[in-house]
Each structure stands twice: as C-alpha cells, then as structure tokens.
Amino acid sequence: MSTNILAVTGxxxxxxxxxxxxxxxxxxxxxxYNYLRLPSYSAEESIKVFKLLGxxxxxxxxxxxxxxxxxxxxxxxxxxxxxxxxxxxxxxxxLYGDNTDITGVEICIRRYPEFIKEEKMLVIGSxxxxxxxxxxxxxxxxxxxxxxxxxxxxxxxxxxxxxxxxSLNNIEKLVKEFKIIVQAxxxxxxxxxxxxxxxxxxxxxxxxxxSIFEPFINKIGFKFLSGKDWLVNQAVPGxxxxxxxxxxxxxxxxxxxxxxxxxxxxxxxxxxxxxxxxTSGKILAKLTGYRFVDMDDEIESQEGMKITEIFKTKGEDxxxxxxxxxxxxxxxxxxxILSCGGGTVKNHENQEILKSSFVTVWxxxxxxxxxxxxxxxxxxxxQCDNPLAAAEKMLAERIPFYAACAYAVVCVENLNxxxxxNKVYEQINRTFGI
Length: 434
Prior knowledge:
The protein is α/β, with parallel strands linked by helices. The protein folds into three domains: 5-98 and 233-258, Leucine Dehydrogenase, chain A, domain 1 (Rossmann fold, 3-Layer(aba) Sandwich); 103-225, 3-Layer(aba) Sandwich (Rossmann fold); 266-432, Rossmann fold (3-Layer(aba) Sandwich), CATH 3.40.50. The chain is 45% helix and 18% strand. It has helices at 18-28, 43-52, 77-82, 100-110, 113-116, 128-139, 151-161, 171-175, 217-220, 227-243, 249-258, 277-288, 295-303, 307-314, 316-330, 348-357, 367-371, 387-405, 417-432, and strands spanning 5-10, 34-39, 57-60, 74-75, 87-91, 94-98, 120-124, 143-148, 164-167, 180-183, 202-205, 223-225, 266-271, 291-294, 336-339, 359-364, 408-411. The strands form three sheets. Strands 2-1-3-5-6-4 form a six-stranded mixed β-sheet, sandwiched between helices. It has a six-stranded parallel β-sheet with strand order 9-8-7-10-11-12. A hairpin with a 2-residue loop joins β5 and β6. The longest helix is centred in the last third of the chain and has 19 residues, at 387-405. 44% of the residues are buried.
C-alpha cells in the first residue's frame, strides 16, 4: 500500500510544529498530501507504522534520531557524520535517512556571507543540537570552538569532530572573540549575559520558544537567527525530499504566523470499526475528567432504531447528515471525548469540523486486526460473503479521509484499550496540560 501520508514521529510529539510548516507548504503547492503527528514508544514502532501506511516520508525527533539508524538501509553523508537522522524516506524500495537539521543551519548562516568570511564560529552546548551545528559549520569551512559545562561531552566532541573546546568559565571572554555565536542549549538555560554582545555579531539560538536574546536585538543591533529560522530552514529540504516539489521558507513562515490552534478540551477519536474507539474513549474520559459521547449510540438513541435499520430504511445519506448535525453541535462544547463512527470522516464538512474544532486522534490498525473477533451483526457494511476483503477495501478507501482530519495518528495494534487511552492521555497532557 502506498499513501500520500507524511508524519513526524517522537515521544512526545503532539507539540510539534512540523505539521504546521509542512501542511502550509502542501496547501500552498496544492498537493495531495497530509502531514500528521505519530507518537511512538520506539523507533521500531515508528518504522512499522511508516511501512504499514505506506508513508512517503517521515521526520524523526527525540528520542529516536539515533535509534532509527539500524532500521534503515542507507544514510546520507550528513546523517553519517551526525550519527543521527531526522528525515526518513523511501527510494527504490529502500529506506533512507537524512539529517536536514544540518542543512537548516547551513541555510541560515549562508544568509550572512560577510560573517562566514570570519572563518570561525562559537558553539555553546554539547548535546545533539550542538553536534548538528558543528557539522554545518564544518561544511561551511568554519573553524569551530565549543563551550559547555559537561567536560566529558566536550572531550568526545573534540575527538570526534576535531574542534577546539573551552569551559563555560571563560564564556564571556570567549564570546567577544567570535562574530558567529550559536547557542544550542535547552529552553531557560542562560550561559552568558546577552548585553555583552555587540552590533557586529550574528547569533543563532536553537530555542524557538523564549530566546534570551530577543529582548536585546534592537537595543544592541546584532543579527539574529531564531530557533524558528532553524526549524523552517530544516523543514524546506525535508519537504522537497518527501514530495519532489520545491517550496520556500516564506511559505512556511507564513503558515507559522497564521497558526492559531487553541485547545478547548475537545478530543475526537476516529478510526476503523474495531479499533477500540468507544472502550478506550471511556477510559480516556475518566483520565481527563471529560464527558464521553459515542456518536453511534447517540444516533441510535435519537432515531429510536439500530444503525442497521437506519441504513435499510432511510439510507446512508440520511445517516451521514445526522452525523454532521451532531458533530457540529459537539464542536461548540468543551471538555468532551467524542467517539466517531467509522465512516464519519467520509464527509468533507465533517473533516473540516474535526480538523478545526477538535484534537482529532486517528486510531489506526490493519483491517485484519480490526475485524478479528468483531461482532459484525450490527455492521451493515460487512454483511457479505467475505467480510475481510470488504473491510480491507473499505479501510483503504477511508485512509485518506482519516488522514485529512487527523491531528495525530496512533497505532493501536497490540495495545489493549487501557494502553490506548493512556497513550493518548500522555500526549495530550504533556502538550496541553489537563
């Protein structure tokens, strides 16, 4: 199976802005792709889902950038240098790994050729982000000095990349000796007072949420590249690898500026019959304290008949209209867990409501997994001689619809309903807080 699904995988990953950037470029180029978040417990799980869904490409974030390497067939030069991958794609039937984090830094710094002429760069930090910066600097022909607290990590970087190293005890003196300064430290960590900078500096901060440098940009007048610049410029080459279509950083910046998703405690669970939407949804409701609603049950109660009878007597179009009216009503509520019918996503209006008003989580499993042991007596679309073949055809048809409205996709194979609920809850709670 081959699909036009792309994703970013990691744990946690619901916070990722990659879908904002990528879908912005997809829409601007009018391409038939959907880019989702894929929370996983391991790199192996991520690659399994990548293959099952026939994805065209997948970004990889923490903590799987190293773990994914043994699962791939080939690495690009940058990925080999870094010993880390942030970009997985297929080529000639093989799995490739690239590292566009490095490319993103190079693109950022190349915007200021006058600083590259200085031929040297200071990197503050010794983690994975710092390694990508070092390689980018080396690719640009710069001599690198790295400063950090962790002396053991510094020694390893010196041995691996042939860089100069220095303790943070000398950081303020060191900063004054460089024109290109890259801080690759976690949010909230302050290595030096930005006021010691001068107007002749170029600063790149890996942190894109609350940079300590931003309040001083206009005051001092130095050139500044934020973590958002890095984020966008690593996404552009990734997009082009995945889709074979060119795009611009401006398109992605625009998508980022326009993004205004607000969490209102509305969670919708979509997915094929038998994936456990109702049972896991009830458990998730207990974990969150939200109200649980099963749309199929609500429709049966409202119409006074089973879904099979609605289909027989009033037809599928009538049933889908009721779904849309009900979905529109629930989109005005807060703190609700909504278990959607398997075909709710077929309607374009429903897709738009789910995408704009809910954190819609697509629970995915293969058709065989879904219908094994499933009671099909109340499943009108499986009333046939070969339920498995019908289910496989139906799921293949619906996958683009599930992808079109999903905030994230969660693979539920080999998870019980409690584990499904916990997996969704962990991601929601870590991103939005409950």
